[in-house]
Amino acid sequence: MHFNTIATSAILATAASAAAVLPRQAPVPEPIAPNSVFELVALRSASDVHFTWVSAADNRLWLKLADQKASCDKTSDGKAQFRLIDGDLLLYSTSYSQQQIWVDASGMGQGITGYTTGVQPMPSRYSQRGPFVFDQYNNLSLNNTAGFLACPMPDGVYRLWTNAGVAKPAGSEGCLPVSLRASPVSEPNNCLYSDAPAPSS
């Protein structure tokens, strides 16, 4: 009996020690409701872009952008708002002229990511509009395979690219792989985001 007590105590102590060193799993959030409005926050620990929000301007997506130059019903807080409808990623708007995200993940495009307005064509024959999907943590990806890169620009903002396996798209230095996690919006803001040539190629 004494041996069994000692053995049981040893097993419990070992289990407790093992549990102490096991990594905690992140809680699984509520899934983003279909067709609902959300914002995207960048996640990259120990970096300048961790917990920064995605903005949209000049036909591109950005982090740490001071002014989206968007025309909105209410004052914009600088965060772009999106909807995901049947794999299409749209900038939120109630107008007929929708703004839709596209990606060119070809060897030529290297993951360049932007948006078109209304009936504007995509910039190349290799461009695609998705499908975009969420994982169980509401992280966005292209076709459940490609994440994103945040590449620093001279003015301190970061331009977002889809990760097409190119570490330095367009020769960009210091690019960081990031996750883009959706956060639901309770009060959507109808906006038209600036439709102009990108600041750089």
UniProtKB/TrEMBL annotation:
Keywords attached to this entry: Signal
Underlying gene: 20344313
Leader peptide range in chain numbering: 1-18
Name of the protein described by the UniProt record: Cell wall protein PhiA
